[in-house]
Amino acid sequence: MINKANWKIIKTYLDYREHVDQITIGSLKAERTYTRYILEWAGENAFQKVQTLRPTLPEYMLHARLDGKEGRLSAIHIKKVLGTTRHLFSWMADHYRGCRGIQQSWIKTIKAKRLTVIPQNKDYVSFEEILAISKAPVVNLVEKRIRAAAVFLYLSGMRISAFISLSIDAVDISKRIVIQDPNHGVRTKNRKYGITYLLDIPELLAIVQDWDTEIRESLPNGGFWFPPFLPDSGEINPNVLKIGEHREVLATKNLRAWMLKIGLPYRSPHKFRHGHIHYGLNNAQSIADFKAVSLNAMHSSMEITDQFYSILNDSEVKDRIGALGKNGGIEMISDQETIKLFRQFLEWSNRNK
User: Fold this and answer.
1) Distances in Å between the alpha carbon of 263 and those of 129, 249, 258, 260?
2) Secondary structure string (H, E, C) spanning 120-135
3) CA 107, 113, 118, 119: dihedral to nearest 10 degrees?
4) What SS3 state is found at 275?
């Protein structure tokens, strides 16, 4: 049984996260799930008295599931739950009079120990796939819009939540610039501001430029690059300057239906972001290039880019290992170039210590 007072604390905490910290809808949904584990673990015990509770939360999470399935949760999922727990109890110690006895030394113990994170090959939209998508036929505005959206997601690496809330004022295709500004309604992760540059791939830029030109003839300033349509005529609706909470769902449904129609395997919007990053890293020639890809994806650090996106597929590892030291394999670089790259790495490393 769940302690009612604990439930009220969680409710207040999530409200604080939404309205004070202003986290995104997606992050709020995730934290609501994470806090459910905390409630289940505490049971009837008040949060103020769980410091001596056994098993500890890290131990409990090794066997916890909310979906009724068997098997251990992923190491990454467990770490996210424990991270939310540390933040929750630190917040309680600051905001609840009866919780000020919660010690930071105990909060620091809420962490996973020696959990093995099994690397997973990231699924992504390949360059060949996006070229096929860009050449696929469209017969109406709905299909033309989703084709342009798919290509835009690949070129920009944007998250779908930010893309569907992007106004035409924030886009300059000719300069390949996209301004992701939460103060102008763009739903970025953690309300982060950023300037994103589109990949310079002419055949793909032509698709988004064509759509950009068409919608600007119908839309006022502030209109959306993924514009709503009039339900009766199916034409662009120029009067909508605010989008609903489920706009992301509509874009995903449109994408699934169109890709099924044209005979291509469905890829979720986030797989286009993966494709953008993979394309960038695959073509990076220096640490500076790697850093540019990371910044363009609006990652908080290069470590995130490296941890989640620079994983080679098994076949790529095999090809590269097999080509080591062989002429005619992967292009070799000179000793001078190697030294130059190493110095670039050292300079970057010293700046980011």
Assistant:
1) 12, 21, 9, 5
2) CCCCCCCHHHHHHHHH
3) 60
4) helix
Measured CA to CA in angstroms, residue 44 lies from 14, 41, 51, 53, 201 at distances of: 20, 9, 14, 11, 58
**Both tokens assigned to 251:** 């874009």
Helical packing angle, 269-283 and 302-309, nearest 10° = 110
One digit per residue, the tens of pLDDT, for the chain of length 353 reads: 899 999 999 999 999 999 998 887 888 999 999 999 999 999 999 999 999 999 999 999 988 988 888 888 888 889 899 999 999 999 999 988 878 778 899 999 998 776 555 555 568 999 999 999 999 999 999 999 999 999 999 999 999 999 999 999 999 999 999 999 999 999 998 889 999 999 999 999 999 999 999 999 999 999 999 999 998 888 999 998 888 888 999 999 999 999 999 999 999 999 999 999 989 888 888 778 888 888 898 887 776 666 655 555 556 555 655 665 555 544 555 556 655 655 665 565 556 55
Pair 217, 227: CB distance under 8 Å:
no
Tokens of 300: 């908080």
Q: For residue 36, count CB atoms less than 10 angstroms from its CB and return exposed for 0-12, middle for 13-18, buried for 19 or more.
A: middle
Q: Which is nearest to 6 in space by CA: 104, 109, 85?
A: 85
C-alpha span between 102 and 90 (Å, rounded): 8
**Contact status, residue 93 vs residue 64, Cβ threshold 8 Å:** no
Is residue 305 exposed (0-12), middle (13-18) or buried (19+ Cβ within 10 Å)?
buried
Q: Residue with structure tokens 């501001």?
A: 193
- Rg of the Cα trace of the chain? 24
pTM for this model (two decimals): 0.69
